[in-house]
């Protein structure tokens, strides 16, 4: 089989490895749509809504989404053609959709990162969290995916914010802001273990002291 390639943030990825991850994985055929999931929050949000619902219909999505009815059906058609959602048998006469699971694994600087539906769910909220938008715009999806994995590791006490900044090549303030955003979205930690709120100015003044708090976590 001949591999095709998709370019994201000036990097090419072998789409031979972009597959649904069910019992009988199939190729994701609509690579441009897959790429658009990473750039288009409403499309990512629609896919996420279908995945969260298990099964849903077009009319149900129209009621809950912020885009127009025409856009909802355009997105459904696009996602279905791409292999990211599929229709399921139903007796209602109305098309019923379910989301397909997928995983794209990338190796960056000898570090493996994965693009998954869980990551797409976070990206769908990029307009609501400036730190997410900033990392995606300034550093790209690969760095964001790496930072995402590192933040989850931070919540388990495996890395510090200083290490997140170093490994993902982010500034200390950006790393902290991203930790704060992802803790909120993913409901990580608790009131005592979650990151304390500081402004970027705080990092400029006492960056070392602030980061030192996480050395033992």
Overall average pLDDT: 77
Low-confidence parts lasting 5 or more residues at pLDDT below 50?
A: 1-21, 196-217
Which fold name corresponds to the CATH topology of the largest domain?
Arc Repressor Mutant, subunit A
- Percentage of β-strand residues: 5-15%
User: Strand sequence of the main sheet, in spatial order?
Assistant: 3-7-8
Distance separating the two termini: 47 Å
Helix content: 40-55%
Structural class: alpha+beta
Number of helices: 10
SSE pattern, N- to C-terminal = EEEHHEHHEEEEHHHHHH
Shape: elongated
InterPro entries: WH-like_DNA-bd_sf, WH_DNA-bd_sf
Organism: Halorubrum laminariae
Protein name: Transcriptional regulator
Fill in the keyword field for this structure.
alpha+beta; Arc Repressor Mutant, subunit A; 2 domains; three-stranded antiparallel beta sheet; 10 helices; elongated; disordered N terminus; disordered C terminus
Q: Could you explain the architecture of this structure?
A:
- The chain has 217 residues and is an alpha+beta fold.
- The chain has two domains: 5-102, Winged helix-like DNA-binding domain superfamily/Winged helix DNA-binding domain (Arc Repressor Mutant, subunit A); 125-212, no CATH class.
- It is 51% helix and 15% strand.
- It is built from ten helices and eight strands.
- The chain has helices spanning 31-39, 41-53, 58-64, 69-82, 117-123, 130-139, 141-155, 161-168, 172-186, 200-212; strands spanning 5-8, 11-14, 19-20, 56-57, 85-88, 96-99, 102-108, 111-115.
- The strands form three sheets. A three-stranded antiparallel beta sheet has the order 3-7-8. The protein has a three-stranded antiparallel beta sheet with strand order 4-6-5.
- Strand 5 (85-88) and strand 6 form a beta hairpin.
- Helix 7 crosses helix 9 and helix 8 (161-168) packs across helix 9.
- The protein is elongated and about 55 Å long.
- Residues 1-21 and 196-217 have low confidence and may be disordered.
């Amino acid at each position: 089989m001949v591999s095709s390639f998709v370019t994201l943030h000036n990097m090419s990825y072998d789409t031979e490895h972009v597959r649904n991850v069910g019992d009988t994985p199939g190729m994701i055929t609509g690579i441009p749509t897959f790429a658009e999931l990473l750039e288009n929050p409403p499309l990512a949000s629609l896919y996420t809504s279908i995945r969260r619902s298990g099964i849903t219909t077009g009319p149900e999505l129209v009621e809950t989404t912020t885009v127009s009815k025409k856009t909802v059906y355009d997105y459904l058609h696009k996602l279905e053609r791409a292999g990211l959602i599929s229709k399921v048998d139903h007796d209602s006469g109305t098309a019923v959709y379910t989301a397909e699971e997928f995983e794209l694994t990338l190796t960056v600087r000898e570090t493996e990162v994965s693009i998954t539906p869980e990551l797409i769910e976070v990206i769908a909220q990029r307009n609501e969290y400036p730190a997410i938008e900033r990392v995606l715009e300034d550093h790209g999806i690969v760095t964001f995916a790496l930072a995402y994995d590192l933040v989850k590791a931070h919540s388990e006490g495996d890395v510090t914010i200083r290490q997140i900044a170093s490994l993902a090549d982010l500034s200390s303030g950006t790393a902290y802001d991203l930790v704060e955003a992802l803790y909120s979205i993913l409901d990580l930690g608790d009131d005592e273990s979650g990151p304390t709120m500081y402004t970027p100015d705080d990092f400029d003044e006492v960056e070392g002291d602030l980061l030192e708090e996480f050395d033992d976590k």
